[in-house]
Queue: 2 jobs
Job 1
Amino acid sequence: MEYDFRKIESKWQARWKERQTYRVEVNHNKPKFYVLDMFPYPSGAGLHVGHPLGYIASDIYSRYKRLCGFNVLHPMGYDAFGLPAEQYAVQTGQHPAVTTEQNIARYRSQLDKIGFSFDWNREVRTCDPEYYHWTQWAFLKMFDHYYDNATGRAEKISDLTARFEKQGTEGLDAACTAPMRFTADEWKAMNEKEREEVLQNYRLAFRADTLVNWCPELGTVLANDEVKEGLSVRGGYPVEQKKMKQWLLRVTAYAERLLSGLDSLEWSDSLKEIQRNWIGRSVGAQMFFEVADSPLKLEIFTTRPDTIFGVTFMVIAPEHDYVPQLTTPDNQAAVEAYLDETKKRSERERIAETKRVSGVFTGSYAVNPFSGKRIPIYISDYVLATYGTGAIMAVPAHDSRDYAFARHFGLDIVPVVEGGDLSVESYDAKSGKMINSGFIDGMDVKEAIPVMFDEVERRGLGRRQINYRLRDAIFSRQRYWGEPFPVYYKDDIAYPLSEEKLPLCLPRIDDFRPTEAGDPPLARVEGWATAEGYPYEVSTMPGFAGSSAYYLRYMDPHNDRELVSRQADEYWRNVDLYVGGIEHATGHLMYSRFWNKFLYDLGYVCEQEPFKKLVNQGMIQGRSNFVYRIKGTNKFVSCGLKGEYDTQEIHVDVNIVRNDILDLDAFRAWRPEFAEAEFVLEEGRYVCGWAIEKMSKSMYNVVNPDRIVEEYGADTLRMYEMFLGPLEQSKPWDTNGIDGVHKFLRRFWSLFTDRDGNLALSDEKATPAELKTLHKTLKKVQEDIENFSFNTSVSAFMICLNELGRCNKREVLEPLVVLIAPFAPHIAEELWELLGHTASVCDAEFPRYNPEYLVENSFEYPVSVNGKLRFKKELPLGISREEIEAAVLSDPNAQKYTEGKAPRKVIVVPGKIINIVI
RNA sequence: GCGGAUAUGGUGUAAUUGGUAGCCACGUUAGACUUAGGAUCUAAUGCCUUACGGCGUGGGGGUUCGAGUCCCUUUAUCCGCACCA
């Protein structure tokens, strides 16, 4: 009987559901293994064929681990809060909760058709109050903690206030927004509001006036990772810098741990590198430059203290606090004009014009502490207010930006490191001999740097300092569809809601636009306040809030007393394998690690890092097809002949094209304007052009997995997605070629069954050749799964079948059913049942290969003479090098090439090749 | 500008990690069967050449008996960061 995948797949999907095959519980008799996919945002467009790629890979791995005896946690859920649902709501008035619900239902039905082994009993949705209860809870915990650099972990705010009570800030080394100094008496003298303002400086979740990325089009602020090149990642709208009071998370407190933790992770080097760059640690010196004729001291940060003798001017950011004090009366007008100009420039313009040099002289001078020279102080927007101290010492000879600035304003350029040609460009390299630098003259740059660090500290000019590029995460969004903050305001002080009051549920509203006053939609809600009438926060949390700890919730999803129970956490610990896209490198993956480390400090989780191993699947691009219309006509010319006409390229729906041949009738039926289309064919066919583009509706290249499942079956889809190429590589989807995999499954099916669909296996003993093929395949597939090389394992199956021919021996075929089960679970279950097993193939034992069957007793050596391959010589294994040499040299073939001469040397690589050099 | 990755037939890719480049598929061609199909089976298929043979892993150079693989250099494409002091 034909391989009836529709019947088989619906049968087993129903049975899995009914028998709860994939339900998993804590089981101390088995080792655990946690396989996680990045949960999807359920968009209105549904899944296309690229989305399940990672899910299929992780499903194969989960099933494999289960066969190997692990208790596998493999959950799935939805990242359900977010902008698109809300924007859709603004346009249509449809409540985001409703559209989200619909989208989830659609996703679920699509996912179910592919035959995943998810434990749906553990599903989470970030928009579910029972879920965001714990997002809010974590926020409260962050609000109630600060980061103590001395203990290297988060500590209670009450410990901090107790300390202030006793000794003020004396001896305190804590992560903060701006350093503070006060005594115990000063603390005691503060009122509640003043004290809270102090504490906001230390809390891990805090409110501050900061320069934020404001996106007017979206009406919300965005985190740094949500902005790219001055445009919002979602929507691509311009983003401007604006000072606003916002909630932030003090991610920077964990910068060092986020960086050092990377070393212990099995992540790709490129991903780790992205995170390292994002954290951007740099070691340097923070030092003070005295301002001439003024009590002011200008604080700067530098990584090149060795170049101090080359400092010829200083630059401060336009937003720097000292701008007014440093501006002399006769420069006032020019400075104001410059500040105006820079304020008007958007972030985007600033980025676009990085080559343009601009700036203004303040009229003040600083004193170079080493050379004693007076150096002018400039204002320029090439110095960033948000990095370091917002002020720099400029060394034009050895920094390209300072060089450009000095050239533009005609400032001195003093070389202090030998090398380069300063008439053309600065010499930025960190190597060379120091010159014009007093006591460090003659040293190499690498020697000079530590010497200068010491000297700066000895003279009391400053100290060593580590700076990070990483910024605190802006945590409020002026949106509706997100987690409400569990805080209320009294006299403009934020107070946390008590934990018993959680979750603070998002109120239902009908109008999702900002208010006329520009406040977020929640400001429309009457009575959005505590029982006592104190107003709640009207912003909501950003998308990453809900996704930062979802992997923990899956461990214990129905617990209404805690995020995760100690027992569940201690059993499941952390994610052993995380599969998802690289696009979350600086967002979700950074925030999750931060969140997890925080919870670790508080003792709620037992592992420092949430995701042990991470695999990034590549993107699946679309493969678009084109037809060519002769301009001004309704005539279409086949691709190969289009050069002879003046044509217009038109995207055509890939679903009516097969192997680049257009289905003419389907094309005429596709759109009314093509109903009367005429064609210029080549060899009787219309050949379409093609291109690799993003998979999107507008390109008509979206392939829906439902359609593939309907036509070929889920097992074919699963195997074909893997066969397409290496998991981590981006590649285009091309439905051409799926036949090969489908054919393979049909052949596999037919080996087991007769025409009536009954089992037709023989109990005959397998030949050594068949056993060799079987065990070779077992070995290869197992190794490939462990290396995430799923494409080559699919090939291995095909080779296996080619080699087995029409073999129908049970001894050979039965292990193959288990072997293929992770890839094609439906057909495997059906065959397993036919083979007489009552338990699911999911609970079978992974077949181990027997190395004995793979042993060769002879090897065919390729023999080359002077590097040129000449003949092959078959020799028994296990003979010595000398014996091989003698056997080869006595071979008449060899003598023909050596012409009787003794070879200069003979190279024997056992098991590989023999080379004779004359 | 800095950092990372990739480059192999008409297409997707593979190569025991330095050992006969192109496995496995798609596509194409020819044939078989056939109540004609987008089914199945067989064979061929890197390029040039009637053949002998030659050339072939983006380009150039090197190490080596031997290089897709290692080194240097160069080009192209993709990704990340980007005035980070």
Job 2
Amino acid sequence: MSELKIQHILTLAELFTKGARYNFVPITTSSLGKSIRKSQQAASKHLMELEANGYVERLRSGRKVSVRITTKGHAEMIKISSVLKSSLESIPAYLEFKGTISSGMGEGAYYMSMKGYTKQFKTKLGYIPFPGTLNVKLKDKESIEAKRSLDAYDAIMVDGFSDGKRTYGWVKCYPAKVNNIDVALILLERTHHDDSIIELISKANIKKVAKLSTGSKITIRVPVSMKSNRD
Amino acid sequence: MSELKIQHILTLAELFTKGARYNFVPITTSSLGKSIRKSQQAASKHLMELEANGYVERLRSGRKVSVRITTKGHAEMIKISSVLKSSLESIPAYLEFKGTISSGMGEGAYYMSMKGYTKQFKTKLGYIPFPGTLNVKLKDKESIEAKRSLDAYDAIMVDGFSDGKRTYGWVKCYPAKVNNIDVALILLERTHHDDSIIELISKANIKKVAKLSTGSKITIRVPVSMKSNRD
DNA sequence: ATTACTATCTCACGAGTAC
DNA sequence: TGTACTCGTGAGATAGTAA
């Protein structure tokens, strides 16, 4: 009989809003029922149960009834509220990709070294990437799904260009971390890869700096803004 | 089908704690059931219903299932959490007394002018009260109950003393406001009043300053600490 | 007008179990 | 191991109504 029942939470919150913490406030079960979108009878039962469990006190003066929340009721609300608050605050704000290093250079290696791209990398990323991209084969569905959801987050957009002979597509860059090393996950407008491959670029040679070789398992973390509008 | 059901709140909070906001996290319905103190079947149903309403997404890889919270689910949790939080923050932190001015001076008038008390008032309240206390007859049960609950809150304690002939009891002072005028509600160790009478003291003549006369209705507000341990 | 009783209904939950 | 079905039970909600 000690724990606050889930269905009483909103009722108790409504009583707080009505100012019933320190003073007895007059209240009717029908108005309370309306506030919590339940029937008058439900509100009446809630009050009876809250009282039976020591979360509120009631005072009757003839027809009128006043309600006050007890310290126990106050403490219980604080508990619930902080549980919810802390569960919301415990969110790690990044997308995680797990995979293994794929053999060879990525298909983007050649293109990424073109002036039309490197000039933009320099201004937008702050560096010209090591010539050669790192291919990562994603291991699980979760990571492949994470790749799909990247679309919804802000990226650094490197525009496509033309060299007179042909045109080159845009590149979306997502700053990321691999073993605490700064890298960028890149999505190409035109790619031959399927969904299970991603490419990384970095200022230095990632394989060397992170001591990775073909087949190594890696985890990539892409920070995402808390204000995103995914879905 | 749009509103988050109350009984799903804790389940969703648990998913947040498990990090399921941005990434799909593998989870079993039985472990989730344990976390929310419900059965495996209940957890399974919660997930199905949360998914049906667009609060979570699920990903199946054979036997394993991963769960991710959608933006809609995130928004709904924020909504609930802030409703609870704001209901807790909306608490007016004072005890309210409603009553009418009682005729004549309070019984404390004479005693309160004694040096043994006035010296303490000067140091503890910061002033020597106007000679004469104001009696207030409380109107309703709520106010009488508020008077009883004063006991639990911090007061300025004016100690009793002896003048050789007899002893005088302590006086508890609660700083308060009447029509925005600073007063103090006093509780006497020895009183002839019943529970429905309270006495007020103030630096100046309250009746004059607040333009009150016998029979006037007044409201007294006594601020209380948020950290109290009433009940 | 109130509150709260009784009866009824719905649905949340857990047991058992199929897959 | 897993998930999720059916079904029985009872808690929670509402309707009707007494006081």
